[in-house]
Task: inverse folding
């Protein structure tokens, strides 16, 4: 009576990942997409919220993703020790 046939994710060139493979691929893409934000929050970067907004709001630009990745991975400037 009811047919529940779920073919999974068909990539179009003969590769069918199935439901679990499609879920794994979607998870990988999301993690790579949010990598700059994840790195910034993990490192405790001062501009982490700005990086998250840049990463999510300007999602159509690969350049914005590269800028966010740069901001997340650049060396944190430490203040110089002042002699007393």
Result:
């Amino acid at each position: 009576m009811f047919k529940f046939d779920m073919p999974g994710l068909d990539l179009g060139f003969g590769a069918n990942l199935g439901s679990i493979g499609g879920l794994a691929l979607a998870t990988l893409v999301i993690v790579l997409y949010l990598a700059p934000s994840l790195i910034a929050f993990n490192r405790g970067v001062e501009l982490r919220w700005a990086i998250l907004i840049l990463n999510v709001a300007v999602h159509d630009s690969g350049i914005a993703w590269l800028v966010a990745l740069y901001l997340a991975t650049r060396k944190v400037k430490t203040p110089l020790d002042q002699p007393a």
Observations:
- The chain has two domains: 1-31, 34-73.
- The CA atoms of residues 51 and 71 lie 7 Å apart.
- The mean pLDDT is 78.
